[in-house]
Amino acid sequence: MAKSGFTSAWLPPPSHSFAPEGYLPQNLYSLNSSYGSENMLRALLNTMKQYKVRAMADIVINHRVGTTQGHGGKYNRYDGIPISWDERAVTSCTGGLGNKSTGDNFHGVPNIDHTQHFVRKDIIDWLRWLRNTIGFQDFRFDFARGYSAKYVKEYIENAKPIFSVGEYWDSCNYKGQYLEYNQDSHRQRIINWIDATGQLAAAFDFTTKGILQEAVKGELWRLRDAQGKPPGVMGWWPSRAVTFLDNHDTGSTQAHWPFPSNHIMEGYAYILTHPGIPSVFYDHFYDWGSAIHDQIVKLMDIRRIQGITSRSPIRILEAQPNLYAAVIGDKISMKIGEGTWCPSGNEWSLATSGHGYGVWQK
């Protein structure tokens, strides 16, 4: 990972959980999970530090499985384990005696009431422990729609991760099955969330994912908005947009909203040459064969060598059904789609190409 140029790796939720994947936490301070023991985790984080790959903790603090029955016969108390909250820590909308939620409900589990000062103090102590004692350096906030972004701001200010990213995921604008061209209201909601964290967190660019996975099916005109910019969060606030093709929810074994598998290299040719903070899905990198792996590494190399950053300027030159072409930072030009294109001028040389994509450098 270090050799390929990754700077951060998002790990699964570290705590003991009712579901093996880690997203139904109960005892937050127990780091013995289905993934392995606390000692194994500490050893991993130590090794990652040696290789200068930051470890990103998946922070699941929207909800928490109770240990004992309380008010109304619900499992809304946490007796017998560290952070032993009572019913006041659970929102009134999910069976507790706390205030109502400051966001959307995650159904079937007690949702944590972040308006309570005692709750926030305990969460901050735990986050500081993960950061300073266990050795996580970055945070990913799970289900960020579930509670107000102002609490994310407070948690980041107090625990001081190097980098934070939030999962603010709601549906793109569809007419039936058809994705609308204009997704401005969708990306605006993500941007409002980033703003409300005091601009301290980045956010996964779900807008770009939703548009890009339709665009590669012969609708590449979608990749230029009405102002001539990229149509996702990347087009408006690239230094805070974490771009991606798939994650454990959208792809992999769950496949809730998958990127078309025969087009993933065009997808990576797009996000790895463009502004924003690109991320690569573990499955694509390690499980889809060496050809895909090597093409992704090559694109990462070009990005690094040519000095493309999250804020690099971009000029979109073509956005037709079967051809998209752009120049990024005056260092790289690229095209995806079946249409033929190459940059004009003999200062450009082909850096890499593959099925449906080409990248040139000066």
Automatic annotation (TrEMBL):
Single Gene Ontology MF annotation: alpha-amylase activity
Enzyme Commission designation: 3.2.1.1
Record keywords: Carbohydrate metabolism, Glycosidase, Hydrolase
Catalytic activity: Endohydrolysis of (1->4)-alpha-D-glucosidic linkages in polysaccharides containing three or more (1->4)-alpha-linked D-glucose units
Domain Alpha-amylase C-terminal beta-sheet: 304-362
Class of enzymatic activity (EC top level): hydrolase
Domain Glycosyl hydrolase family 13 catalytic intervals: 1-315
Entry similarity comment: Belongs to the glycosyl hydrolase 13 family.
Protein name (database record): Alpha-amylase
